[in-house]
Amino acid sequence: MSTNFTVRERQKNAMRSILSLNSMVTKQTSTEPVWKVFIYDRCGQDIVSPLFSVKELRESGITLHMQLHSDRDPIPDVPAVYFLLPTDENIMRICQDFRNHLYDHYYLNFISPISRQKLEELASAALQANCANCVTKVYDQYLNFISLEEDMFVLKQQDKDLVSYYAINRSDVKDTDMEFVIDNIVDSLFSVFVTIGVVPIIRSPKGNAAEMVAEKLDRKIRENLRDSRNNLFTGGDLFGTNVALTFQRPLLVILDRNMDMTTPLHHTWTYQALAHDVLDLKLNQVRIDESADPNAKQRKSTVKTYDLNPNDKFWETNKGNPFPHVAEAVQEELEAYRSSEEEVKRLKSEMGLDGNIADEAISLLSDNTAKLTSAVSSLPELLEKKRLIDLHTTIATAILDHIKSRKLDIYFEIEEKIMSKAVLDKSPLELIIDPNAGHRSDKMRLFLIQYLCGLGAVSESEINQILSELSVIGCDLNPYHYIKRWKKFSKLALSDSQYVFHTGGGTKTVSMFSKLMSQGSQFVMEGVKNLVVKKHTLPITRIVDALMEMKSVPEADDYRYFDPKMLKTVDNNNSRNKTPFHDAIVFMVGGGNYIEYQNLVDYCKNKSKSAPKRIIYGTTDLMNANQFLSQLSKLGQEINN
What we know:
- By secondary structure, the protein is of the alpha/beta class.
- It is built from 22 helices and 19 strands.
- Among the domains are: 7-142, 3-Layer(aba) Sandwich (Rossmann fold); 148-260 and 539-640, CATH 3.40.50.1910.
- The longest helix has 28 residues, at 323-350.
């Protein structure tokens, strides 16, 4: 996103203020920080870890950071900054800290608003412990969401089961349970808009969880705006001065996962989405098992964690690129690094610094000193470059191993053809019965995509044949049982014109890799297809485009309209002006993925400079295909029980 103030930057600024003992932090502030300890719960840790490195925390004056529920010794004469949810368990522990006189001053920052009753409990405990004067500040922070990218956020990580697809769609869900789930989502979404300081115009489909979220969020913002002088939306504008000058507010599109069940199951071909699909990627950290010998009888697991953050230029440039391009880019970076390294060695040799300086070398000193000084000054940058090359070599190699062993390129290609209604070179059944092609979950994903996109083309006998083959290899068929029922009810609920299909898309294979087949390449891509992905418009992007451009499409024509700034709820889009929106926040209820995020990023890139679009993608939780399959399996089990 081109603006300086992104959702991540806004949240980071709010956290900087918290870490500076609730004082405003400006670029002019260059005073020595006050040294302090930082106490958080699991939710607080999830929010902070993608925003700050340990080095950045140290620069903010944090000498020690600890979990609230860990064993902590008293540290006198030091202020403590708390950042946590106001749960009963957390409140009890803070009261215990008061009684134990752990710290000199307490700065209590609650991620979500604390109730009056719990505030009174804290006050009572502070009085009884005779430390009321030590409780310096108590704040409601409205920061209950996690910024993973400049233009992407999720609501939960640790407790994501609370707002998962399963939690919303399980058959025995009670009204009170559903109310709890929706309230959880609305409170976090409200935090997002308080943090970025804008009141959106809200659109949502009818008759699902997305509509319930839209209604409640509209009501919550509306209630807060009643006090025009003392509401939470008096901050700056997320999208910079342009929007402020045109007085145009952003569009919030709230969507339901049930609108597109195919994309979360799809095998992918871009770097970030592949890392999330086949590796353990969460909160911008990827964990890779680097066991020395995979064939050893007693395998010693050595799991290493790598950070993928916005300061990593290679990651920012390549995370949305097809994997073969990334492998090529890693190889190019490696070669560029080696040539830089060779240049330093050559200069040292010419100047005789690798041994005794010869007489004739003295004359070269004046010419080469400047060059060597320049080379040495760039050494830290060179070492950082080498660290990032090693990091991406490790990640890309781990991904390549999965692609080769599971034939993921073939799965991706055949699924793209199914989803874009292209003619198939071979039937999915051939891949399913191939014992060397993929895991059981890969085969189930392919079958479900064929079943979802078949639109009557897949006969009952074909389905039974595939199910029989899947049973033979020990596949869990519960996801199919749920999808079968889901498809039946979806057909009853929607006319054909309201279905949102995948448009465009497909792939073409480039026969030769330009550089990767060279001798000594780190990535031997032999046997892997070099697939060039054609432009693909996912259902989410098609709907967002229609709503932002105020175009009429059958799938979105009956979407509800909410404007929290209007005195009365007017659910009539026709009465509004037809000015296209430049900015949107797209929020997926029931779980999102990096495939949709990247598709929206590509959509913004392809827009003309005269009418640029800026989109933030948010979701209740990020799930990869296997996590989605396991939720479908649980829902399928409920049908059979």
